[in-house]
Specification:
Order of helices and strands: HHHHHHHHHHHHHHHHEEHHHHEE
Number of helices: 20
Amino acid sequence: RGTRDERAPPHGPSATMSGVGSGSAENDAQRAEEAHEFGALNTLVVVFVLATVIAIAYLLKKYKIYWLPESAAAMMVGMLIGALCKIFYPDEDELAFLRFRPEVFFFVLLPPIIFEAGFTLKKKSFFRNFSTICSFAILGTIISTFVVGFLTFGMAKAGVVNIDTTSPLQSLLFGALISAVDPVATLSIMGSPELKTNKLLYSLVFGESVLNDAVAIVLFKVFVNLTTREAVPLDEISSYIFLILEFLGISIGSVLIGVIFGLSCAAMCKHTHLRKYPYKEIAILFLFAYASYAMGESIGLSGIMALFFCGIVLSHYNWYNLSRESQVGASHVFKAFAMITENVVFAYMGMCLFTGEFTSWDPAFIVLAIIFCLIGRALNTFPISYLANFKRKRPIPKKMQYVIWFSGLRGAIAFALSLNMPNGIDTHHNGRWDNDVIVTTTLCIVVFTTIFCGGLTERTLSCMGMKFDPESPEPAAGARKSKRGLHALWKKIDTTWMQPVFGGPPPKAAGGSAGAELSAVSRGEGKGGDSGRVGLLAGDGNAYLPPDVVFDYDDGDIGAGTGEYFGATEDVHLPGARGEDED
C-alpha cells in the first residue's frame, strides 16, 4: 500500500556506506585470521626444525660422530627447509618469514648466547691466560681487519671484484665483519669430554672467541661512523691512530657498563631476601644482564662486551648470593636458552641461501675472500704466539698454533653485520655501494668454515696431537707459590672490600661445608673434602645429579659446551689446582 517491506534492503547513500563498511570489516577480520594461521603454521615449522636439530645433536653425541658439528647439522637442516620452501611454496610472505633479520638476531637471539658464555666462563683458565687471549682477540682482530680489508681493496683496484675503489672504507668494513671469529662448531667438538682436548688449547680458543666478536663489532661500528662524517683522510697515519683510540674508548666504556650492572645486581641480591623466591632471582639475573646489553647498544658502545663482563661479574660475586634452587636452575635455564638460540641462528643462515633477496654473487670474490681470511688469520696467530711465548711459563707449541689458526670459523655475527652494511657513496660508479656482493660472500664463507673446517676439527686435533693433555702430577698443598704483584693486590681488595658488599664464598670450614660443596659442584668446580669427589649436591638427598656421577678434580669451573652437567666434564680440575696453562 505504498509502504516498503521492512525486509527489503535499504537504499540511499547512508545504506551504501554501511554496506561498504561492513564488507571492509569482514575482509579485515578474514585477513587477520589468515595472518594468525600463517604465523601459527610457521611457528610450527620452526619448532619442528629445532626438534630435528636437537635430535640430530643427540645422535651425534651418542654415536661420537665428530666430522659433523652440531652447528653444521643445524645449518644443513635449514638449507633443506629453505630449498623445499623455494621449490614447492615460493610465496613471498613465506620466504620473508624464513629470512635472517639482523635486529632479531642482535636483540633476541644473541644476548642469551653471550650471557651464558660469560656466566659459565672457566674464569681460572681464562684469567690465567688473559694477556694472551686479549692479544689474540684485540690485536689479532685489528691485524686481520686491515689485512683482509687492504687485500680486498687491492683486488678492487685491479678490477677483480666489484668493490668501491675511491676509498678503502667499504673494504675495511668487510675486513672488520669477516674477522668476527665464531668457533661454535669447533668448540662443540673440543669440549667433548671423550676427546680430552688439550686444556690450554681449549682455553685460548674459547677465550678468543668470546672477546673477538665484541672487538669485531666495535671495529665495524667505528668504520660505520666514518660514513656519516665529513671526509676522513684514510691515507694518513693520524687517522688510523684516531680510529684505534676511538676503539679503545668504546671497549673500556662497554666493560665498565657491564661491571656496573653486574655489581648492582649482586648488591641487590646480597642485601635483600630475594633468595626466598628462586624464580624471582633468576628473573632478576636475566633482566640486569639484558639491561647491560641494551644500555651499551643505546649509547653507542658494545652491548656484547658489556653483557659478557656483566655475566663474569655475576658469576664471581652473585653466585654465592643465590639460593640453592637458583644455583642449579640458572645453570640449566641459561644453557638451554643459549642452545636453542644457537640452533635457530644456524638454521636461519642455512635457509638464507635459498630465501634471501640476493642479486649479486661473485664466485671469484668468494674464493679470494676465503684465501684472504686464511692469510689474515695466519698473520695474527703465528706472530702473536711468537711474542707471547717470550713471557709465558708454558709456551704455545707450534702444532697448537696451527690448530688455533684452523679454528677461526666465521659465524652468525659476521653475517648479521654484513646485512647492516651502510649505503656509502661510490663516486667511481656514480651510485651506492653494491653491498649484495658483501652479503653473499660472507654467507658463503660462513657456510664453508662451519661445515668444512668445523668437520675437519677432530681430524686436525688428532694429526697435531692435541687430543690428549699430558699428565702432570699435582703439587702438594704447601708447594703453591704465593700470589704477588697485581694479582695479590687484587685478591686483597676483592676479599677485603668487594666480597663483603657484593657477595663471595663463605668462610672455609674444615673439610668444606655442604653449602660450599653445592656452590662448587653446581659451577662444575668439584670440591668435596679430601677426595675431591661428590655424588649428590650438598649430600642432602636431593639428587640433582645421578648417584653414579662423580666429579674428579681434573678440570675447572664451567666451560661452554664441555659436558652434560652444568657445563663441566666428569674429570675436572679443582679451581685451586695448579694448571700448566698459565701466562
